[in-house]
Every structure is written in structure tokens, then in C-alpha cells.
Write a structure and sequence with these properties.
With 378 residues, the protein is α+β, with helices and mostly antiparallel strands. It is 46% helix and 13% strand. Strands 1, 2, 3, 4, 5, 8 and 9 form a seven-stranded antiparallel beta sheet that branches. The chain has a two-stranded antiparallel ribbon with strand order 6-7.
Length: 378
């Protein structure tokens, strides 16, 4: 049986104090408990008390995913506002200090902090995770191997974390550099088979590196409990329409790679070290930089490479009925990623609180039935 290519989307949000614009814990507002009344298990805590995560159910196509992502965002935005908070969808807070943020009282997170110490406490970052349904485990490992090449391109589109501790970091995705202090992160190696991957996991468990495969935090991984491959490379985007477009691109990527795989025309595999070069360029320069075209062995504009990428997946897009959602990628290329837009607001105002206000506004934008235009800055 071919894969279902179902979609699951998880977004991590910040809860913001409307006066200070700093992060504020959602515990006192009982946001989780109130959210579970109407969102059930689709809302949950993360390690820091100012982080709230929402996740869709299993969606059969991108239109289902779009409807559910927007419904979840609408609900959490409304709930936050009703309880004296604001919601921000951004991968690092522009000026908040992780050293004053409390850890959520949960045994799992206490265990991670005990194990990783300051590395875990400093991990005040917010990501987007996209699951694509591939029921056969052997097929899943091969799809992961081939999809690794495209992770820097996907990251460049999602970049949304230029600030850290009140400073312009000079990177479009500083979140990447915070997270890669964790063990078992970044681009994974190539695995020739599912059996070899299983043996790798068993060795880590046997030698007390991990207790289960959920503590493998690669940019892409076979999910240990679901029949999916999980893309974890992305900064959480500001707008829901950006999230949906990136998820549509990820789904189309897996569908196209599977089409080649079943025709015995697998996409060329590149070394992890080479892909990491492009990941650095994506995190540093976002859409405005150059990436390496490994086939041509030359540097190419990231925007040009993404246009080529869209052409590469084009023949599966209509089969997936995702052309409308995927077309929003062109808007990201035109208006810039979240990082680009944050930086433009800061250049105009010199005020990081104004940047937070812009993020809060964008987080709630486009949640109506007809998506609003991206508001231009400058």
C-alpha cells in the first residue's frame, strides 16, 4: 500500500504580558485547563511556563490541516486575550531573558533539566513540527534520507528568530543555534535500512544515552510512536498561512520523493556535512543568502533554489490538492520571512516592544475565512 501522506501540525506559541511585552507564565491564567475544555488534548504545556503548544489531529489533506490550524489559533488567541495575555507566534522572544523563566512542573521536563542542566534552561525557543504519514517503516527511513537535502530550504522559508536577549543576532534563525546545544540535534546521518536505524536506537537505550527515541531531536526523524516522519527544522512562523504553506511544501516533497523512489529513481543522497553547510547559510542569511547547488557545485541565490524546488514538486501538487495553499510560498518570497519582517519593524522604530506588537498582530492575522494580505512594512 502507498503512504497516506496524512498531515499533523504542531505549533509552539509564546504567552505575552500586554503591558511589558515580555513573556509571562500562562499557569496563573489556567490557560491550559481552560483550553482543554474546548480543544481537548490538542493543547499542552512545554518545558517553560510561557510556552503553549497546540497540535492538530491526523488530517487527510492540507485543507483539513488549514481549517484545524486556524481553528486552534483562533481559540488560543481568544483565550489568551480573555485572560489578560497575548499570543505570539515567533521562534525566539526579541528581548526576554531565559534566566528568569520558570520550568513547567512536570516530571519529564524536570528530568530533561536534570540531564542537560543550563542547556535545557536556556532552550527558550519555539518551533513548528510537521508530521507526514508513511505507514511502512522501511519506506519512512528512505524518505527521511532523501528529504534531508531540502531541510535548509524549508528552514530559510520559516526563519523567524533574529533577536535574542534584546540583541540583533545577525542571524535569521538564532533558534537553530540555541537548539543545537542539545545532544542528538541537527541533520541526521544516512541510514541504509530501518533495521540499522533500530539498532542505533537500541544501542543508545542500552548505554543509557536515552530512555526512548523521543530524545532524538533531529531536524527530521521517524516518529517513535506514530507512523510518520516528523520535520522539526522550522522556526514557528508568524502567520497561520505561512505554517500551512510550509506544511504543504513538506507534504509535496515527501510525495515527490516517494514517486521517484517507487520508480527506482531516488533523489541523490548527499553527505550530512554538505547539507549542514546549507543549513548554516539558511540560519544566517535566510532567504537573502546563497546556498550551494551540490549538483552544479556552485553558489545559487536561495530564492532561485526555492523556485527550482517548487518546480521539482509541481507534478504532485494537484494530486494532493494543495496548489492554493502552496502558492503562499510565493508571498513569503516576495514579502520576506518572519525574521525579515521583524527586522524591518525594528529598523523603522528602534523599539523591540513595537516588534512584539507587530508579532502579536501577525499571529492573529489571516484567521478569518478569507486570508488577509500580508501587511507591508516599509
Amino acid at each position: 500500500m502507498p503512504p497516506t501522506f496524512t498531515i499533523g501540525i504542531e505549533e509552539e506559541y509564546q504567552t505575552i504580558d500586554p503591558e511589558t511585552r515580555d513573556l509571562r507564565s500562562h499557569i496563573q491564567a489556567e490557560l491550559l485547563q481552560k483550553g482543554k475544555i474546548f480543544l481537548q488534548e490538542r493543547v499542552k504545556a512545554e518545558m517553560h511556563q510561557s510556552v503553549i503548544e497546540v497540535g492538530t489531529g491526523i488530517c487527510n489533506n492540507i485543507k483539513e490541516a488549514k481549517s484545524e490550524v486556524k481553528m486552534l489559533r483562533r481559540g488560543i488567541v481568544r483565550l489568551a486575550t480573555e485572560n489578560g495575555l497575548r499570543l505570539a507566534s515567533v521562534a525566539t522572544h526579541p528581548f526576554s531573558d531565559w534566566r528568569v523563566q520558570e520550568i513547567y512542573p512536570d516530571d519529564r521536563y524536570k528530568g530533561i533539566v536534570e540531564d542537560l542542566q543550563l542547556v535545557a534552561r536556556a532552550n527558550l525557543i519555539f518551533g513548528l513540527h510537521v508530521h507526514i504519514g508513511i505507514e511502512d517503516r522501511e519506506t519512512a527511513i528512505h524518505m527521511m534520507n532523501h528529504a534531508r537535502y531540502f531541510l535548509p530550504h524549508i528552514l530559510a522559508l520559516s526563519t523567524n528568530s533574529p533577536f535574542w536577549l534584546g540583541m540583533n543576532t545577525g542571524l535569521k534563525s538564532y533558534r537553530c543555534k540555541v537548539f543545537d546545544k542539545f545532544p542528538r540535534t541537527n541533520i541526521p546521518d544516512y541510514f541504509p535500512s530501518w533495521g540499522e536505524y533500530e539498532n542505533f536506537v537500541k544501542l543508545l537505550i542500552k548505554t543509557n544515552c536515552i530512555d526512548n527515541a523521543k530524545k532524538i531531536w533531529w531536524d527530521i526523524r521517524p516518529h517513535p510512536f506514530f507512523n510518520t516522519i516528523e520535520f522539526r527544522v522550522c522556526d514557528v512562523p508568524m502567520r497561520a498561512d505561512e505554517t500551512i504553506a510550509i506544511a504543504a511544501l513538506i507534504q509535496a516533497t515527501v510525495a515527490k520523493l516517494h514517486k521517484l523512489y517507487t520508480a527506482n529513481q531516488g533523489f541523490r543522497l548527499y553527505r550530512r556535512a554538505l547539507i549542514m553547510e546549507n543549513k548554516w547559510r539558511a540560519s544566517r542569511y535566510g532567504l537573502d543568502g546563497l546556498m550551494i547547488d551540490f549538483g552544479k557545485q556552485t553558489e545559487v541565490s536561495t530564492r532561485d533554489l526555492i523556485h527550482e524546488y517548487l518546480e521539482f514538486v509541481d507534478d504532485v501538487v494537484d494530486e494532493l490538492d494543495s496548489r492554493e495553499e502552496l502558492n503562499y510560498i510565493h508571498r513569503i518570497l516576495e514579502h520576506g520571512s518572519g525574521a525579515d519582517r521583524q527586522l524591518r519593524v525594528f529598523e523603522q522604530t528602534g523599539d523591540l516592544k513595537k516588534v512584539v506588537d507587530y508579532i502579536v498582530e501577525e499571529t492573529a492575522a489571516g484567521l478569518e475565512e478569507e486570508p488577509a494580505e500580508v501587511r507591508r512594512v516599509g
